[in-house]
Amino acid sequence: AGWFRRLLQKPKQSSSCAGSSLHATAGHTASSSPSSSSSSARSSGSSASTGMVRAGRPPRVDISSSGSARWAKSYDVCICHSEVDLEFVEELVSYLESQPESFRCFLQLRDAVAGNAIVTELCDAVQNSHCWVMLITPSFLQDPWCKYQMHQALAEAPMANGRTIPVLKDIDRKDYPRELRNLYYIYTVLKENSFRQIRDTVLRYLEELCRSSASGTE
């Protein structure tokens, strides 16, 4: 009887000891190397996140193909600016037009038809462009024609993500036009960085436009 009772007790003791040993080992491991444990968690989390981003990234679209929706309008981007800021805008236009995508830019002093009414030219430029860059400067805020063109763009596509691209230069955030408060803006600190951001935003919109158009015709 005694040996039978001991036989019944052994598994319980063994199980209890094993549990205590496992808990102690786990506690020792966690306390002895917290950095390796946390870095491993970060690494696995990062890998999962990267995998999700890669998996969710839409395929690239050839916006230069002859049948793409890009060619439905005369210009890829219309630059709305004050004449005082012409030098900066000419650099931006030169940058965009020299990109591999050869963006088509509307520059009022260069592309407006001589003899046409200013209102007509501004409205046509907005309607015939996919995206509108608003160079918000102190001169822009004081120019009634700039504000007119801004309102035309907002009326053309008030909720189209990526079409209206506000770019702030030499003004405080508090002076950001209220009409654009629901849109993120690009703040010009380094010219090269802001030019690249504008280029990426225009390209992203055109790719999405062509992708949606292609899927709609399939």
Which features would summarize this protein structure in a list?
5 strands, Rossmann fold, alpha/beta
Overview of this structure, please?
- This protein has 218 residues and is α/β, with parallel strands linked by helices.
- It has a domain at 75-213: Rossmann fold.
- It is 57% helix and 11% strand.
- It has helices at 2-32, 34-56, 86-97, 108-111, 118-127, 138-142, 144-156, 191-217, and strands at residues 75-80, 105-106, 129-136, 164-168, 186-187.
- The chain has a five-stranded parallel beta sheet, sandwiched between helices.
- Helix 3 links the parallel strand 1 and strand 2.
- It is globular.
- The chain starts with a helix and ends with a helix.
The CATH topology of the domain at 75-213 is Rossmann fold
Radius of gyration: 30 Å
What's the architecture of the domain at 75-213 in CATH terms?
3-Layer(aba) Sandwich
Task: Write the H/E string, N to C.
Answer: HHEHEHHEHHEEH
Range of helix content: 55-70%
Main sheet: strands, sense, barrel: 5 strands, parallel
Distance between the termini: 82 Å
Proportion of residues in β-strands: 5-15%
Low-pLDDT residue intervals, each spanning 5 or more residues: 10-54
Mean pLDDT: 79
Global morphology: globular
Count helical runs: 8
Number of DSSP E strands = 5
The CATH superfamily of the domain at 75-213 appears as: Toll/interleukin-1 receptor homology (TIR) domain
Please give the CATH class of the domain at 75-213.
Answer: Alpha Beta
Trace the largest sheet across and list its strands.
2-1-3-4-5
Instruction: Find the structural class using helix and strand composition.
Output: alpha/beta
